[in-house]
Write a structure and sequence with these properties.
4-stranded mixed sheet, 2 domains, 39% helix, alpha/beta, 7-stranded parallel sheet, binds nicotinamide-adenine-dinucleotide, Dihydrodipicolinate Reductase, domain 2, globular, Rossmann fold, disordered N terminus
C-alpha cells in the first residue's frame, strides 16, 4: 500500500450536522436508524452497497467500497442540526410525509430525541418560511461564532471524535459572487458588517470550514463556492464540495445525454418540467429562489454536449427547465422530459421520459455518502474542493481554470480512481492492458 493519500482509521464516533432538518435530512436520519436496526436496506448508497473493481480484470476482484477504504461505520454516527422550526426529527419526518408512519413509529424514541438547534436565518433569503426558532446576534460574525459554539457543545455532549456538515436547508435566493467573497479578509469584514451578499448558508459554511469540519452543500445557492471559503478550506485543510444534490431529472439527464453524444446523435431541444408539492417546492415557487435552481439545472447539458466544439450536433439546442409547485403530490415528484433528437441524414426523432420519483428517497443516500466520503477525505489529508464527489451534485464545484464535469460516467471514473488512490491501489485507465498476457 502506498502511504500517499492513505486514510487513517475511522475510529470513534462521527457527528453528522445538518443545517435544515426538513424532508431530506429527516429521511437520511430515519433511514440510517432503520438500516442499523435491520428494518431496511441503504439502496442508492455507494458507501454502504457499492462495489469497486481493483487490480487486473483477470483477478475479478470487486470488493465493497467500504471494505477497500476505511469508510466510517454508520452504527457509530450521531446526527444533529439546525432549523427555523423547532419540531424534533420525528415530528419533522411525519410532516414531510416521505416515510411510512408505521416505519417512523418504530424509530420514534430515537428520532424525537434529536431537536434542531436555533437557526441562523433571515427571511430575506427564503421568504416563504415562517419559522421562529432563530438565533439573534448584532451582526453575521456574532452569528457565525454562535454556530461554532453550538458545534463545540454538540461535539462534547455527544462525545464525537470527528464532525462533518451537509447543508440540507432550503434553496436561498439567487446571489452572484461579488467583492465581499473575494478573499478571507473581505469575507470576514463582510460578516462584521452583515453584508447582504452573505446569506445564512455561507455563515454555516464559514463556521464549519474555520473549525476544519468538512462541508458539503446540497442546495444550489453558492454557500462554500466562493473564493474566500475555498481559500479558507485550503488553509484549514478542510474538504469541501458543492452544490445541489443530483437526484431526479438532472440525474436522468446526465445519464442520457452522454449516451446520445457518445453515438454522435444530434439534439435540437430538451424540455424538462416537474410538479412537486413539498416544502422545497413551495420555497422554489418564489421566482427569486427558483432562479438559483434554474441556473444550477441549466448548466448541465452545455458542459456535456460542448456545442462550441460540436456545432453541427448541438449549436441550436433549446433547453428549458420548469418547476411547478403542486401540493397534492407532496414529495412524490413527477418529472417529464421531451427530447427532440436528430439522426442519420438529419431525420428527427423524439424521446419522452416520465420519471415518477421520490425526491428525498433519491437525496438521502447522497447526503450519507457525501458525509462519509468527506470524512474519509479529511482522514486522507485531502483539503479543499473534492471534485471526485461531483458525481453526487448538479453543479459540481471545480478548481479554478477547469470546467466542471457533468457526465455521470466520467464522474464515476474520477470517484472510483480517487478511492483506489486512497486505498493505494493502481488506478484504472481502461486501456485493455489490465490482464495477464
Ligand atoms: N430532494 C431532492 O431531490 C433535492 C435535490 C437537490 C437539492 N435539494 C435541496 O436540498 C434542500 C433540502 O430539501 P428538502 O426537500 O429537505 O427541503 P425542506 O423544505 O423539506 O427542508 C429544508 C429545511 O431547511 C430549513 N431551513 C431553511 N433555511 C434554514 C437556515 N438558514 N438554517 C436552518 N434551517 C433552515 C427549513 O425550515 C426546512 O425545514 C433544498 O435546498 C433543496 O433544494 C433537494
Amino acid at each position: 500500500m502506498s502511504k500517499k493519500g492513505k486514510a487513517s482509521k475511522a475510529s470513534g464516533k462521527l457527528g453528522i450536522l445538518l443545517p435544515g432538518m426538513g424532508a431530506v435530512a429527516t429521511t437520511v436520519i430515519a433511514g440510517v436508524y432503520a438500516v442499523n436496526k435491520g428494518l431496511s436496506s441503504p439502496i442508492g448508497s455507494l458507501t454502504q452497497m457499492g462495489r469497486i473493481r481493483v487490480g487486473k480484470r483477470t483477478k475479478d476482484d470487486q470488493p465493497l467500497i467500504k471494505d477497500l477504504v476505511p469508510v466510517h461505520n454508520i452504527k457509530k454516527v450521531v446526527f444533529g442540526g439546525w432549523d427555523v422550526y423547532d419540531d424534533n426529527v420525528y415530528e419533522a419526518a411525519v410532516n414531510a410525509e416521505v416515510l411510512e408512519p408505521s416505519l417512523l413509529k418504530k424509530l420514534k424514541p430515537q428520532l424525537s430525541k434529536i431537536k434542531p438547534m436555533k437557526a441562523v436565518f433571515d427571511k430575506k433569503y427564503a421568504n416563504r418560511l415562517e419559522g421562529k426558532h432563530i438565533k439573534k446576534g448584532k451582526n453575521k460574525m456574532v452569528l457565525a461564532k454562535a454556530l461554532m459554539k453550538d458545534i463545540e457543545n454538540f461535539k462534547k455532549e455527544n462525545k464525537c471524535d470527528r464532525l462533518v456538515m451537509v447543508w440540507c436547508g432550503s434553496t436561498e435566493i439567487y446571489i452572484e459572487e461579488s467583492a465581499v467573497h473575494k478573499n478571507i479578509k473581505s469575507f470576514e469584514k463582510g460578516l462584521e458588517n452583515s453584508h447582504d451578499d452573505i446569506p445564512p448558508s455561507m455563515i454555516y459554511a464559514y463556521a464549519a470550514i474555520k473549525m476544519g469540519i468538512p462541508y458539503a452543500n446540497g442546495a444550489p445557492n453558492l454557500s462554500c463556492d466562493v473564493p474566500a471559503l475555498i481559500q479558507l478550506a485550503k488553509e484549514t485543510q478542510t474538504p469541501i464540495m458543492g452544490k445541489d444534490f443530483k437526484t431526479g431529472q438532472t440525474l436522468m439527464k446526465t445519464i442520457l445525454a452522454p449516451g446520445l453524444k457518445a453515438r454522435a446523435l444530434g439534439i435540437e431541444g430538451w424540455f424538462s418540467t416537474n410538479i412537486l408539492g413539498n416544502r422545497d417546492g413551495e420555497v422554489l415557487d418564489d421566482p427569486a429562489n427558483f432562479k438559483t435552481k434554474e441556473v444550477s439545472k441549466l448548466g448541465v447539458l452545455e458542459q456535456i454536449l460542448e456545442p462550441e466544439i460540436n456545432p453541427e450536433l448541438y449549436a441550436d439546442l433549446y433547453h428549458k427547465v420548469r418547476i411547478n409547485y403542486y401540493p397534492p403530490r407532496g414529495d412524490a415528484k413527477e418529472g417529464w422530459d421531451n427530447i427532440d433528437i436528430r439522426g442519420w441524414l438529419n431525420y428527427p426523432m423524439q424521446i419522452k421520459i416520465d420519471f415518477l420519483c421520490r425526491d428525498s428517497i433519491l437525496a438521502a443516500p447522497i447526503v450519507l455518502d457525501l458525509a462519509l466520503f468527506l470524512d474519509l477525505a479529511k482522514r486522507a489529508g485531502m483539503g479543499g474542493i473534492q471534485e471526485w464527489l461531483g458525481f453526487y451534485l448538479k453543479s459540481p464545484q471545480a478548481h479554478k481554470g477547469v470546467k466542471p464535469i457533468h457526465d455521470i460516467f466520467k464522474q464515476q471514473i474520477k470517484l472510483e480512481n480517487t478511492l483506489r488512490h486512497i486505498a493505494g491501489e493502481t488506478l484504472l485507465d481502461h486501456l485493455g492492458l489490465d490482464y495477464d498476457k
